[in-house]
Design a protein that fits this description.
Elements (H helix, E strand, L loop, with lengths): L5 E8 L15 H16 L8 E7 L9 H11 L3 E6 L2 H4 L3 H15 L2 E4 L4 E2 L8 H33 L11 E3 L5 E3 L1 H15 L7 E4 L8 E6 L4 E5 L5 E4 L2 E4 L1 E7 L3 E6 L3 E5 L8 E5 L2 E7 L10 E3 L13 E9 L2 E7 L3 E8 L8 E6 L4 E5 L2 E5 L5 E5 L3 E3 L5 E2 L2 E6 L4 E6 L1 H4 L8 E9 L6 E7 L13 E3 L4 E7 L10 E11 L12 E7 L23 E5 L4 E5 L1 H8 L7 E5 L8 E3 L4 E8 L6 E2 L6 E5 L6 E5 L6 E7 L4 E6 L5 E5 L9 E5 L4 E7 L5 E9 L6 E5 L3 E6 L7 E8 L2 E8 L3 E5 L10 E7 L12 E2 L8 E3 L10 E5 L2 E5 L2 E2 L2 E2 L3 E5 L4 E5 L13 E5 L2 E5 L15 E5 L4 E4 L10 E6 L2 E6 L3 E9 L4 E19 L2 E8 ...
Parallel strand pairs: 1-2, 1-3, 3-4, 41-43
Antiparallel strand pairs: 4-5, 6-7, 8-9, 9-10, 10-40, 11-12, 13-14, 14-15, 15-16, 16-17, 17-22, 18-19, 19-20, 20-21, 21-30, 22-29, 23-24, 24-25, 25-30, 26-27, 26-30, 28-29, 31-33, 32-39, 33-38, 34-37, 34-40, 35-36, 35-38, 42-49, 43-48, 44-47, 44-49, 45-46, 45-48, 50-51, 51-54, 52-53, 52-55, 55-56, ...
Helix pairs in contact: 4-5
Length: 1195
């Protein structure tokens, strides 16, 4: 059989394969030689056509691993069946992991039926016999592996020796040096200055400290501050705004464009809402809106094309990056014309690019400014309110050709009647033969809040008395273009205890300069000595600056560069006049020109000395500090719970020491553990704030980690069992010598005992029998060193079938809960600290809790929200901010995606709603109000994300709602009586009221839950009772009472398990307790093969039942697939008794495909018989269908 698969040649060269003498390699000679060898072999020896050879190359990649791009592609093609033979120069080219290479030859290649050839090793899998090739390869590659490790060391040693001797190096000299004529190293005087600066910054702690977190409390419009791992701080002063204030909180600006409806994108997080159209159009391509001031405009051309928008969103590559500028473009919206919008926080820059030569023409824009007045002044346009307050401003237009020549001779005229803006460039200038295309027309729309933190200006000798209006870039050119920058002062750096370590000015080169190898465009920074204005700056009135440069750098590639301006920034913050700095091109050759981004920024690394620089140390949140200079001291402070023993210690290989100070900063202790671990430790109870000064002994440099934790863990109670007496058990706690067990009756402590073991037996007295008692356990070493008490656990004198599950991480009442999959999702509620926005999930199988992202709809918290589950999504509807008198109802709707763990905003309700009870039917949520009599139901469509209101027949007082098998059951009240009534949404009618609940009168109820056709209810008032309504039997019952009598708890259901979560208990406060009850239900699903038109019998069998014992069986079929025969006869009970006595049809819903039967034993006590019933059906399809049987036992 002919093999039509192709032959692969695999080539690899690693960095170690370079000669130690070295040759600079683009594609190295070794790769070329391998290619020639392999292809010659394949063509001459194997007779393969060159067209059937596939080549895979990994150049400069180590063979000690297989995560190589070329190899991965080869592996994919092998798996796809495209490769029939693989050829390599030798085994080491394939890989130096001897076991893995052997595995490929022994197993992978034979499995894929691929021939493998290693030329230099004379190995051909087609000629080998048996399964021993892999073993030989493993041994051979073991040698290669040892060689690979040894070669790296040899190369490194050789390089170091040559550096020390000053002899010829194989590649370019390291930065700071250059090659002499004889090949030896010489110091490069210019680079040496930079090297010295780097080492100085390292000595001052700049280079090796990593950013640990942003200090959000120190934000303002233009500044971010970061804490570093050595205890210092870095302040970043940006040119444009990076934050905006919302409800007193500084939010991070993010101009990333996200979808907004079907036709637009909008900025993700900005004070100014900026929207762009998905397609170019003549109505509105871009809009700005803040409050009621909305401005939109669009290019208005006759032959305009509806092209799709292209978006370039900002990205973060490092922690100090910000997402406050991006680009939106509509390519070829007119012939040879594209339009681009550069989006900034308070400014939108518009750029029209004409790619090919064409005569000057007018450009018309459609303007929609709403109720704002539009007024032109010169070539600028202002958009003002009726009272004359400026909201937006369109700057003058600048036209620039491909030679970099610009003009501002552009007429701008607004036509009030047509609401159009006409922009006309100078025909003489545009049509001149000197013009070179492409041409750009640029303007900017500014808001009334637009400002800059780093002022930027330029002076141009070509127009010595004119302002340089070119705003595309900051141009630098020797003796021609000079740049000026000025940073605003940072308040924290002016404080006397702030010490600036270093500062840098960051510039971005926008275009790579083609200057030849090794050449750079040199820029120097000089201290400016006079005031200047960016708007009035000219070459002739430019400010004077010092002749000596404060810093220099050489640029060439398109990337960011930084200049050391430490001396300048220190001087400014110590009282010297801050007139900024000049950027001067040092190159004498004026043909070179640098284009810098017009948004430079400054970074300042500083430390706050003494107690004022103390960083908060939190429990179980260790802080790692880098000691990077001799004598460095770091200050910390911590606050602890009164009366609880804590331990403060370091974890380090260095010898650390610490001094502790009290709240008044008086010294109260010193710790210096010179033992084997060399770490200090404080142990004690600290009722007020403490400060710690940490340093290292013997001028050591390195890092340490500081910890604060409780001396004793909180005991984990593992059980409480018994009836006449209770045995309490718990896990042992490290450092504990004894345990204090306290007994409570409500909030009153009625007993205390000390035990040395991990269990305690409590005997009931006449005073405590039949009472609900609480127990806590506390670990301690002695009376002064005591831990924190465990959560309270409870006994109960009842014989409840409810069991305790893992408690919540937070106590809650008035929370919301819903189930999806095997997890319960609990949201919000409130406790002693106030309302909560926290969100958590309980895994019913693992019995563990997981914290999830907080609810985003209300920062202060949410109570009594309606929650529903739709597949793997959870919807939160309405709710209220708290249960206090000043609480506000919420109209928010959010969905939580359980897979991505992300919140998403959905369509709001028309008004704030709380105390809602919901039922989901056919992808619609029916939200009933529990706030008094009503005839309205709000309906939310999950598919369309829309709300509508339906007026129901009659007015009712509704107390709850639930869905059973896609049917809506509503709990109603009438004259203090409770009953369920089925609501038919499609017909907007009510069925007959169900049976009145015999167990209780009207009350407030938590959201009902459903298990197997039964609706479970619990009151919001203090209770142990749980009521059950069987929607099929129209019967009420109760389940076993809960352990604890509590109020404002919630119910949840998962499978056959019922959960009671949280609540409040008199004397015990808000609870974290979870109780669980198992409903005795058995569900069986069966599949049967059917043929359309055929008749079958379903048989339900309740097994052997004693007299009086009964089982309720629910049968569910797909009514589109199976139809019950002779349904009318089921109305007569006599027609049903084909099996044993005691068979009763309770419900028959033909449209729903649901039947409910009650089978009751009829024989005398002590005897039993098999009870069953047959049901005739007719198939309406061919194929498989499913029948579900649910059996519930009744006493």
């Amino acid at each position: 059989m002919t093999d039509h698969r192709k032959t692969a040649v695999y080539i690899r060269l690693s960095a170690e394969d370079d000669n130690v003498d070295g040759r600079a390699k683009k594609e190295s000679d070794s790769v070329t030689s391998q290619r020639i060898l392999l292809k010659s072999f394949v063509i001459d020896q194997l007779g393969v056509d060159e067209a059937d050879i596939l080549e895979y190359v990994d150049d400069g990649v180590s063979g000690t691993h297989f995560k190589r791009q070329g190899f991965q592609q080869l592996q994919d093609d092998m798996k796809s069946g495209e490769i029939g033979c693989v050829v390599v120069k030798d085994f080491s080219r394939f890989g130096r992991d001897y076991l893995e290479v052997g595995f490929y030859i022994e197993y992978i290649f034979p499995l894929l039926q691929i021939r493998f050839i290693s030329i230099n090793d004379s190995y051909d899998s087609a000629a080998s016999s048996g399964m021993t090739g892999g073993m030989n390869v493993a041994l051979q590659n073991l040698v290669y592996n040892m060689y690979s490790l040894d070669l790296s060391k040899k190369i490194s040693s050789a390089m170091q020796t040559r550096t020390k001797n000053g002899t010829r190096l194989p590649v370019n000299a390291r930065y700071g040096y250059k090659k002499g004529k004889d090949g030896r190293l010489e110091v490069d005087p210019e680079a040496a200055k930079v090297v010295k600066m780097i080492f100085q910054m390292a000595a001052e702690g700049t280079s090796f400290a990593d950013i640990t977190r942003e200090l959000t409390e120190k934000r303002n419009s233009f500044v971010k501050q970061f804490a570093l791992s050595d205890g210092s701080f870095t302040a970043v002063a940006y040119s444009m705004p990076v934050h905006y204030k919302k409800k007193g909180v500084w939010k991070e600006i993010n101009t990333t464009l996200v979808k907004s409806g079907k036709k637009q994108y909008k900025t993700k997080s900005t004070d100014l809402s900026i929207k762009v159209s998905k397609k170019a159009n003549k109505k509105s391509m871009i809009s700005l809106k803040r409050g009621s001031a909305c401005l939109s405009w669009s290019l208005n051309g006759k032959k305009m094309k509806a092209v799709n928008v292209k978006i370039s969103n900002p990205k973060k590559s490092k922690q100090t990056d910000v997402l406050n500028q991006n680009v939106v473009s509509y390519p070829k919206v007119l012939k040879n014309t594209s339009i681009t919008y550069n989006i900034f926080p308070e400014r939108v820059q518009e750029v029209i690019t004409v790619s090919k030569k064409q005569k000057a023409k007018k450009w018309t824009f459609k303007i929609n400014a709403g109720k704002m007045k539009i007024k032109g002044k010169g070539n600028q346009v202002y958009f003002k309110t009726k009272k004359g307050k400026k909201k937006y401003q369109r700057l003058h237009t600048i036209v620039t050709d491909a030679n970099g020549v610009s003009t501002s001779k552009v007429k701008v005229k607004y036509n009030k009647k047509k609401k159009t803006l006409t922009v006309t460039p100078s025909k003489k200038w545009w049509n001149s033969k000197k013009r070179k295309f492409p041409m750009e027309m640029r303007t900017s729309y500014l808001t009334d809040k637009h400002s800059r933190n780093v002022k930027v200006g330029a002076a141009y000798s070509g127009a010595p008395n004119g302002t340089f209006t070119y705003d595309k870039s900051l141009l630098l050119q020797a003796n021609k273009c000079i740049g000026f920058v000025q940073m605003s002062m940072i308040a924290d750096l002016k404080k006397p205890n702030a010490q600036i370590r270093s500062a840098a000015l960051h510039i971005k080169n926008k275009k790579t300069l083609k200057m030849g190898a090794g050449k750079t465009f040199d820029i120097s920074v000089h201290k400016v000595k006079d005031k200047w204005s960016a708007k009035k700056l000219t070459f002739n009135n430019r400010p004077a600056y010092e002749a000596e440069a404060a810093a220099k750098t050489g640029i060439q590639k398109k990337r960011s560069y930084s200049l050391d301006v430490t001396a300048l920034v220190k001087g400014w913050h110590q009282g010297e006049n801050n007139y900024g700095a000049s950027l001067v091109a040092e190159n004498t050759n004026r043909t070179y020109q640098a284009e810098l981004d017009r948004n430079p920024y400054f970074t300042v690394n500083y430390e706050v000395v003494g107690f004022d620089g103390a960083v908060q140390l939190k429990e179980n949140e260790p802080i790692t500090r880098d000691i990077i200079k001799e004598g460095q001291e770091n200050y910390f402070y911590f606050d602890t719970k009164p009366g609880i023993a804590y331990e403060v210690y370091t974890d380090s290989a260095m010898d650390t020491q610490a001094t502790m100070y009290d709240e008044s900063k008086e010294r109260v202790g010193y710790a210096d553990n010179t033992g084997t671990n060399k770490n200090f430790s404080f142990v004690g109870s600290y009722n007020k704030r403490r400060y710690i000064k940490v340093s290292t002994k013997n001028k050591a440099i390195g890092s340490y980690t500081l910890h604060l934790k409780k001396r004793f863990a909180i005991p984990e109670v593992t059980g409480i069992k018994g009836q006449d007496s209770y045995t309490l058990t718990w896990q042992p706690v490290e450092h504990a010598k004894e345990y204090v067990v306290c007994i409570y009756d409500g909030s009153r402590k009625i007993g205390e005992t000390i035990v040395t073991g991990t269990s305690y037996e409590y005997l009931y007295t006449n005073d405590t029998v039949r009472k609900t008692l609480g127990f806590t356990v506390t670990a301690r070493e002695n009376k002064t060193l005591t831990g924190e008490a465990s959560r309270m656990v409870y006994n109960t004198a009842s014989q409840s079938e409810w069991v305790y599950q893992t408690p919540m991480e937070k106590s809650r009442k008035n929370a919301s809960v819903v189930t999806t999959g095997e997890k319960l999702y609990v949201l919000g509620g409130e406790n002693e600290t106030g309302s909560l926005s926290s969100f958590a999930a309980f895994d019913t199988e693992k019995k563990t809790w997981e914290s999830l992202p907080d609810y985003p709809g209300n920062v202060s918290g949410i109570c009594k929200a309606a929650m529903i589950a739709d597949s793997k999504d959870i919807y939160v509807i309405g709710g209220q901010t708290s249960t206090k008198t000043d609480a506000k109802a919420l109209k928010n709707v959010y969905v939580y995606h359980t897979e991505s763990k992300q919140w998403q905003k959905k369509a709001d309700m028309k008004e704030g709603r709380t105390n809602l009870s919901t039922a989901v039917c056919d992808k619609k949520v029916y939200a009933f109000s529990k706030a008094g009599a009503t005839d309205r139901v709000d309906v939310y469509d999950l598919n369309t994300d829309t709300w509508e209101t339906t007026v129901m027949p009659g007015t009712s007082t509704i107390l709850g709602a639930a869905a059973v098998d896609n049917r809506v059951f509503v709990l109603k009240e009438k004259e203090s009586s409770l009953f369920f009534e089925e609501y038919l949404p499609e017909e907007n009618t009510w069925e007959e009221p169900g049976t009145v609940c015999p167990y209780t009168v009207s009350d407030r109820f938590a959201a009902p839950v459903v298990i197997r056709g039964k609706i479970y209810l619990v009151k919001e008032s203090e209770t142990k009772d749980v009521y059950v309504y069987d929607a099929y039997l129209d019967e009420w019952s109760e389940v076993s009472a809960m352990n604890l009598k509590k109020q404002e708890s919630v119910l949840a259901a998962c499978g056959n398990e019922l959960y009671s979560i949280g609540g409040e208990m008199t004397g015990f406060g808000v609870l974290d307790v979870v109780e669980q009850y198992t409903v005795k239900v058995q569900t069986t699903k069966k599949q049967m093969e059917v043929r359309q038109g055929s008749h079958y019998e379903l048989q339900i069998n309740a097994g052997n039942l004693k007299k009086g014992q009964s089982k309720v069986v629910t049968i569910s079929v797909n009514p589109k697939e199976l139809e019950i025969q002779n349904a009318s006869s089921f109305a007569e009970e006599d027609d049903l008794k084909e099996g044993a006595e005691g068979v009763t049809l309770l419900k028959y819903q033909p449209k729903k495909g649901v039947m409910v039967w009650k089978l009751t034993g009829s024989l005398e006590r002590g005897e039993s018989c098999e009870t069953y019933q047959s049901i005739p059906i007719e198939a309406k399809k061919d194929g498989k269908t499913e029948i579900a049987y649910t059996m519930t036992e009744q006493s």
